[in-house]
Specification:
Elements: H1 2-32, H2 49-65, H3 88-98, E1 103-104, E2 119-120, H4 125-134, E3 138-139, E4 147-152, E5 160-169, E6 175-184, E7 187-195, E8 206-207, E9 222-224, E10 233-239
Parallel strand pairs: 1-2, 7-9
Antiparallel strand pairs: 3-10, 4-5, 4-10, 5-6, 6-7, 7-8
Helix pairs in contact: 2-3
């Protein structure tokens, strides 16, 4: 009988403590995961000068390579001890390094907001995403100079990464993206495709331009839409190398 009373008392005390414990846990969680920075749905054309220089460099490399297959390792991989690796992320990091963009190693990043212009010094797509996530710099709204992370339908959500060279908000709420991407068929390619952040299925948020709106000739280094081998891709997320909220004019709507 005494054991039963003790058990009942323990359970009653536990019930009283649980709400406060849960509240404390939620408070701690909320403190450690602050709201993401403001990312306007309108495209900010006047990006930071150094980010525009990164885009200009990526464009120059795309023009220079001109669809020719690159060896591996190559100049875009040498920054990581001349390792041989899938260099889609390595190409972006190389561009950032050439313009002295502040770099952070993923394993040394402390969770929390990081202001200003910054990049994660990695090549692997999931490591890039993890580093940017730690800095609370992940969004579904594109801007020029952001990294675009692709997932593969029915598979890896961090399969490929490119650089948003240009972005345009369309009347139907979609975005027309121009991207420059390394290590596609061992070369650098440019794509123009439409992205819908409000698609019912995330795996179907990327689409080809209508035929009548394609004004450029497709080449070995440029094409509309996007497909890689037999895998269709979708946009998983965008990684913010710069924070639009720091460049928005006063009173601009998010």
């Amino acid at each position: 009988m005494r054991f039963v009373k003790r058990t009942l008392c323990f359970l009653a005390a536990l019930c009283l403590l649980c709400p406060s414990a849960m509240a404390a846990s939620k408070k701690k969680q909320a403190k450690s995961t602050p709201a993401p920075p403001v990312v306007p749905e309108e495209i900010i054309q006047e990006v930071p000068d150094v980010i525009q220089q990164v885009l200009d460099l990526a464009y120059t490399e795309w023009q220079t390579v001109d669809g020719q297959r690159q060896p591996n390792p190559n100049k875009y991989t040498k920054w990581r001890n001349k390792y041989k690796f899938g260099w889609c992320g390595g190409f972006i990091t190389w561009c950032m390094l050439q313009l002295d963009i502040p770099q952070k190693e993923k394993n040394l990043i402390q969770s929390g907001e990081v202001p200003g212009i910054v990049h994660v010094k990695e090549a692997d797509v999931s490591k890039l995403s993890n580093g940017y996530t730690k800095m609370n710099r992940v969004t579904e709204i594109p801007q020029k100079g952001f990294l675009i992370v692709y997932g593969k339908k029915g598979g890896n959500g961090f399969w490929h990464v490119g650089l948003v060279y240009d972005a345009e908000k369309l009347p139907d709420g979609k975005y027309r993206l121009t991207t420059i991407e390394g290590n596609l068929n061992n070369t650098i390619r440019m794509f123009i495709h439409d992205y819908d952040p409000h698609a019912e299925k995330k795996s179907a948020n990327l689409s080809y331009l209508p035929e009548e709106e394609r004004t450029l000739e497709e080449t070995a280094s440029f094409s509309y839409g996007r497909q890689y081998k037999k895998y269709d891709l979708y946009v998983n997320q965008f990684l913010m190398s710069w924070l639009p909220s720091e460049y928005m004019s006063e009173g601009a709507a998010p």
